[in-house]
Amino acid sequence: MxxxxxxxxxxxxxxxxxxxxxxPSLKDIAHMLGISQTAVSFAINGRPGVSQQTRDRVNEAxxxxxxxxxxxxxxxxxxxxxxxxxxxxxxxDDYQTEAFTLHFLAGIHLSLxxxxxxxxxxxxxxxxxxxxxxxTWAKSKRVDGVVLTDLREHDPRPQLLAKLGLPAVLAGGPxxxxxxPSLSIDDGQTMKTVLTHLCARGYRRIAYLxxxxxxxxxxxxxxxxxxxxxxxxxxxxxxxxTGFGEEQSVRIMQQLLxxxxxxxxxxxxxxxxxxxxxxxxxxxLTPERYPLAAPAAVSFEDSIVCRNSYPSITAVHRxxxxxxxxxxNLLLKELSGHKVTGNRNILTPTLIVRESTxxxxxxRIISRETLN
Length: 372
Hints:
By secondary structure, the protein is α/β, with parallel strands linked by helices. The protein has 3 domains: 2-78, lambda repressor-like DNA-binding domains (434 Repressor (Amino-terminal Domain)); 83-185 and 320-341, Response regulator (Rossmann fold), CATH 3.40.50.2300; 187-317 and 351-370, 3-Layer(aba) Sandwich (Rossmann fold). 44% of the residues lie in helices and 15% in strands. The chain has helices at residues 2-7, 26-33, 37-45, 52-65, 71-78, 94-97, 99-114, 127-140, 157-164, 187-200, 216-231, 246-257, 271-284, 304-308, 320-335, and strands at 83-89, 118-124, 145-148, 168-171, 182-184, 205-210, 236-241, 265-268, 296-299, 314-317, 343-345, 350-352, 369-370. It has a 7-stranded mixed sheet with strand order 7-6-8-9-10-12-13. Strand 3, helix 9 and strand 4 (168-171) form a beta-alpha-beta unit. Helix 2 (26-33) packs across helix 3 (37-45). The radius of gyration is 26 Å and the shape is elongated. The termini are far apart.
């Protein structure tokens, strides 16, 4: 096979002895372990057909010999690029402010690099541009598979990827068309826990500054927000969509603060929106009244911004890096030939209770509580 020919090209000399003059090959690993080159290849690429014990022995031999794959040879032999694509329809500025997305990307890269894969990241200005990127990648065989995020209502991307024959895993979901397997977080239950926390501490006028109503996870949070108060009525509720824009969020916040009876608690979609809105409140209160007279604040994303704000902001903490690793691992499983279907709920978020939701019923501040 072409792979073997390229892998076994050595410098002149004694071919039976590994030396610094040539790179180790699959044949060297197979000879060391007394197994076939096919078994070595299967173990390296995560394909079924070899035991976990064999995989462990191969990995140990790789470390001892300092073996690394020849990607050109691998491409000739298997038509693989050893690259995963990640194209997202978001403004590039979002990646400079969203801690969750940056850690999610880092988690994906960590899992991919452990298996010899690279990550091709392509920010897109629109959904149509993202779709065209997938068409280009599929036609040119640029990537082996893709990570899909930000599922939308009537999203065309799962059908497109299935038509292109491009393997994919969705972070979020689930995909209603059942074409793309997914790993999701229960955003509805998370919202319920946030609201239960606020109501238990005496807040009775609660506003939710949401993101984009067309995104699946935002829609689930909105549905949970509405349904919660059908069962647990309070004095007043507000639901406003910010489109994740900071200027729009500030305008909405100023309008709500100017009401005769404004909200006494706010739930924010992101840490960036929470931070700028808390700052907006601070600008309207005297130092003597801030933060004592400030409304409560909860962010659906946790970051150093929430920890270091004044007052510190109660936030939903999810391990974005771990999430990215799990998404990448599921895609790698699919790329290695395993059948991957359906949706998996993973990660149990944790509500980190800080100064911004100070207790009204009792002066004791709870430091941490886990979502159920």
